[in-house]
Design goal:
This protein has 599 residues and is of the alpha+beta class. The protein has 5 domains: 178 residues, P-loop containing nucleotide triphosphate hydrolases (Rossmann fold, 3-Layer(aba) Sandwich), CATH 3.40.50.300; 91 residues, Translation factors (Elongation Factor Tu (Ef-tu), domain 3), CATH 2.40.30; 72 residues, Alpha-Beta Plaits (2-Layer Sandwich), CATH 3.30.70.870; 109 residues, Alpha-Beta Plaits, CATH 3.30.70; 112 residues, Alpha-Beta Plaits (2-Layer Sandwich), CATH 3.30.70. Helices cover 26% and strands 33% of the residues. It contains 14 helices and 32 strands. Helix 7 crosses helix 8, helix 9 runs antiparallel to helix 11 and helix 12 packs antiparallel against helix 14. The chain is elongated, with a radius of gyration of 29 Å. It starts with 5 loop residues before the first strand and ends with a helix.
């Protein structure tokens, strides 16, 4: 196929604005999938995606379309819309020349619309603005167009109107894609250079790399090399997506397809790496890849039964093969036994991994309090910062000069009517107000500087409650800033319990400590001896609750006689309780851990 007749594009939008439904209509219009095989959200391969109605993994597909007697090849990448999967969108944008910006006519421009648009502009892509869901009775097309003109600076006649549900306007969109999006500029005669924008694991073919061929060509049995990692392999198979894997003879410059590498580990074939021929790698410059994905939120997963440890490790291994952003490593804990510290992109990512563990492997883990990565400046070493991933790694406070925590730029888009209630929610966080921008007379963007810890806990739910579901948020990591943070330890019967430890702002430590010991008092069963529950910072106890002991009536068997007999028995009981207290260890049920986790 002549390169001039190839168009590579992706669809970007906020979550639930109809990307996958529009993709279905494009597949139907180009007759890529037979009607009998067609189903809703065809490109969403996971059951979890269909049930939740969200796209979690990006999905490429190749379509053929004939216009004025000329056959064109259209390579589409359907992208996720949630803020946690922003990295998937940035990877898709690096592999294409154009983007369809989709905006829901009933909701207008939202936080991820803006975030994804800025990513596309940074990559220098051609953008086609499209208003979707125009068939709905509450669609306000004119208002949505005004919002798009405000953020994009385009003319009103350049904005297309489509309905992903009925297929209205899809033909016009296909014509516009061919007209506006430029053809790829790679050269087939140059040495092979291909950008990996995603990968997945296949039992028979090894790691399957999703690639955009920039220069040269690749075919079966070629010897290839990964430029960043340095690993080498023979090509097992090459092909494109229809949307199933479709083997072909070769892939040439400008094509989007897959290379089955035969590697047994995703680590040998990293997303963002450049694939080249083994014999040519010294004279080839690698493509500007994207940064390696860095997890933002860490939480520990522990199997409920100790025997399930190996089963859980195998399950997490399999999930990691198909999700490059998920990381995990073994750790152990006195209270919970052996488990894994896992890294996620955000709380939705954590939820998805937890749901997949339960569905695909029938494992329900105990999860510790999610936390972020802190940086610590040690006394006398101002140039060296120590990264800590959980409170248990915190060094002695006497050695610490400063603690730095990650801050994000937080954008909240909402109808102006909810300004007061949103500001009320933000008062409960440590966010610093920066600016308000008005998209039009009814909608605004509120911009804050906010610690990541405050964003990941309950902020999304609180904003939805405060704005009757209309507000949407997006955040991006900016930098680390120093803050007066302390490690809050929880002690049960004088023993520190690592799983309850957390890093909190000093001014909130008392409230957090009191809340935790009160919840534990309700969750831990009473024993034959008194149990002290204490919240402490270093050696200083800041909150305390006591679980009273059971009292056994040792004098019930006495009948008559002197009072000294009764006193003798009570003294004996007192001594026994003292001894029991000194050797007694408290069993903490798993419900107590869950009770503390819940806000």
């Amino acid at each position: 196929m002549d390169q001039k007749n190839v168009r590579n594009f992706c669809i970007i939008a906020h979550i639930d604005h109809g990307k996958s439904t529009l993709s279905d209509r494009l597949l139907e219009a180009t007759k890529t999938v037979e009607m009998r095989k067609m189903k809703e959200q065809l490109l969403d391969q996971m059951d979890l995606e269909r049930e939740r109605g969200i796209t979690i993994k990006l999905q490429p597909v190749r379509m053929k379309y004939v216009q004025a007697g000329v056959e064109y090849i259209l390579n589409l990448i359907d992208t996720p819309g949630h803020v946690d999967f922003n990295y998937e969108v940035s990877r898709s944008l690096a592999a294409v020349e154009g983007a369809v910006l989709l905006v829901d006519a009933t909701k207008g421009v939202q936080a991820q619309t803006l975030s994804n648009l800025y990513l596309a502009i940074e990559q220098g892509l051609e953008i086609i603005p499209v208003v979707n869901k125009i068939d709905l009775p509450n669609a306000d097309v004119a208002k949505t167009k005004k919002e798009i003109i405000h953020i994009l600076g385009c003319k009103e006649e350049e904005i297309l109107e489509v309905s992903g549900k009925t297929g209205l306007g899809v033909e016009k969109l296909l014509e516009k894609i061919i007209e506006i999006i430029p053809s790829p500029k790679g050269m087939a005669e140059r040495p092979l250079r291909a950008l990996i924008f995603d990968s997945k694991y296949d039992t028979y073919k090894g790691v399957v790399a999703y690639v955009r061929i920039v220069d040269g060509e690749v075919k079966r049995d070629d010897k290839i090399s990964m430029m960043a990692v340095g690993s080498e392999s023979g090509v097992v198979e090459v092909g494109f997506f229809k949307p199933d894997l479709q083997p072909v003879e070769n892939l040439a410059a400008g094509d989007i397809g897959y290379i089955a590498t035969g590697f047994k580990s995703v680590g040998d074939c990293r997303v963002g790496d450049t694939v080249t021929s083994s014999n040519l790698k010294s004279g080839v410059a690698s493509l500007p890849g994207y940064k390696q994905v860095v997890p933002m939120v860490y939480a520990s997963f522990y199997p409920i039964e100790g025997d399930d440890y190996n089963l859980m490790r195998d399950a997490l291994d399999k999930l990691k093969l198909n999700d490059a952003a998920f990381t995990f490593e073994p750790e152990s804990n006195v209270a919970l036994g052996r488990g894994f510290r896992c890294g996620f992109l955000g709380m939705l990512h954590l939820e998805i991994i937890q749901s997949r563990l339960e569905r695909e492997f029938d494992i329900s883990p105990t999860i510790t309090t999610p936390s972020v990565v802190y940086e610590i400046e040690m006394r006398g070493k101002p140039d060296k910062k120590l990264k800590i991933y959980s409170p248990t790694e915190m060094p002695d406070p006497a050695m610490i000069e400063k603690i730095y925590e990650p801050y994000v730029k937080l954008d909240i888009i909402s109808p102006s009517a909810y300004l007061g209630s949103i500001m009320e929610v933000m008062k409960n966080t440590r966010a610093e107000y920066l600016n308000t921008e008005y998209i039009d007379s009814e909608r605004m963007i509120l911009i804050f500087n906010c610690p990541l810890t405050d964003v990941i806990t309950n902020l999304h739910d609180d904003l939805k409650s405060a704005s009757s579901g209309y507000a949407s948020m997006n955040y991006e990591i900016k930098d680390y800033k120093p803050y007066d943070l302390v490690k809050l330890d929880i002690m049960v019967a004088g023993e520190k319990v690592d799983a309850f430890a957390r890093i909190v702002p000093k001014e909130k430590a008392f409230g957090e400590g009191k809340r935790t010991v009160e919840k534990l008092k309700d969750s831990i069963p009473r024993q034959n001896f008194q149990i002290a529950l204490q919240a402490a910072i270093g050696g200083k106890v800041i909150a305390r609750e006591t679980i009273k002991a059971f009292r056994k009536d040792v004098t019930s068997g006495l009948y008559g006689g002197d009072v000294t007999r009764k006193r003798k028995l009570l003294e004996k009981q007192k001594k026994g309780k003292k001894k029991m207290k000194s050797i007694g260890r408290v069993e903490i049920p798993s419900e107590a851990f869950l009770a503390v986790l819940k806000k």
